Amino acid sequence: MELFASVVNSKDLFETVVAAFVASLAIALVSSLGIWGGTKYVDYSQEGRGVTALLALSVGIFGLLATLGIIVLGIALMVAK
Amino acid sequence: MDLHLILAIVVVSALAFDFTNGFHDTANVVATSISTGAASPKAAIAFAAILNFIGAFISIEVAATIASDVVNQSAISGAGSLNVVFSGLVGAIAWNLITWYFGLPSSSSHALIGGIVGAALVDSGSGAIETAGLVGKVLIPAVVAPILAFVVAALAIGLSYRIVRNLRPGPVNRGYRLGQIASGGLLALAHGTNDAQKTMGVITLALIADGALPAGSNPPTWVIVASATAIALGTYSGGWRIIKTTGMRIIKMDPAQGFSAQGAGAAVIMASSHFGFPLSTTHVINGGVMGSGVAKRISAVRWGVAGNIVTAWVLTLPAAALIGAGTFGLTSLFGSGPVGPVIISAIAIVLIVIAFVRRSRQTEVVDVQAEGA
């Protein structure tokens, strides 16, 4: 373990693992919410459920914007160093 | 004069390696988008080439690792050391082309590092190797990264399936195909960032060995531009054989899986580049593809193909090191001047042309057979 610690910058490696986990799961979550919202909006609209459709649409828009936000944030963090 | 001639050969070889890196790794970036129908092959490759070029300008952390944490800069100087860099590049290019010939997605990065380490070991013994840097910044991340991509992609696709499981498949697939344009773009950007920097690092190392740059220097602007251009041109040329292996032979992918594999791959590569880990984009994206397949069901992954890929991964470092060491031995027979690199370059060019001609003839035969079937 000491040998491992002497050659590996454990903090950087740990932060890499955490960043990859958080970014991947966050983008999977928000993009899927975007797709869910968009699809449900169409379904509810066809069923004539206007208010529910609008709620689904807002989830979809949130998902889309959050996806774009995570991508931009990721690139900004890379460029910042 | 002799030293500058060797330097020129090393720079050209490094850019040739960068080209083969782009050519070889196009598959990593575009295979999933093409196999799920998210983008046409031509559009996907052109898009990836442009983003590879842009990505090369984002960071120089990985270049610094290659230039200073693999080989001991103070142990290298003069023509002999340029021959070490040259021999390492020959080892990497040779291994890239061998694995391309057989359609195996192996790591260009590990081939490069293996080639240089092999040549440096023959030249100066173990004292020329930065063991801590090699283990801590290359070998351990090399093991961690594909496992990380595998796990992250599996979790991401599990989460995605949970959210969209009761929806109509048509709009869901369309949505993820659209998402793949973004995730594929991000992956191409990450690939350009991590991989083009390896060539920048090698050219910087050669310039330091030549005395044109002081030890500890960052890559000059012309090196960054040349490396970005070479990898983008290589990507645009595309390696269809490996695209088929990554995109179609490991698993039969749906758009959600493609999106998850690309998203996980981009996240792992970008996070690693940020901290200067020169990892293999090949290992990462293939780990992601396998992870997204396993999450659906374990039998979805064609384990025979996956096994071949893992074998190529394991062989890459030692095989490139052996070729690098052998090339250095051959080069040394002609002294430390430019004669050795000139002769080896000529032989390498002839072998590359033969390999391309043989491969294209075999492809033509397969195409004719497919048309006749």
Looking at this protein, list some descriptive labels.
heterodimer; A: 81 residues; mainly alpha; B: 373 residues; 13 helices; elongated
Can you walk me through this structure?
Chain A is mainly α and 81 residues long. Chain A has a domain at 27-75. Helices cover 91% and strands 0% of the residues of chain A. Chain A contains three helices and no strands. In chain A, helix 2 packs antiparallel against helix 3. The relative contact order of chain A is 0.12. Chain B has 373 residues and is an all-alpha fold. Chain B has one domain (2-339). Chain B is built from 13 helices and no strands. Chain B has helices at residues 2-35, 41-55, 61-68, 79-101, 108-124, 131-164, 169-210, 221-237, 240-249, 255-274, 281-296, 303-333, 339-372. In chain B, helix 1 (2-35) packs across helix 8 (221-237). Chain B starts with a helix and ends with a helix. The interface between A and B is large, with 39 and 49 residues.
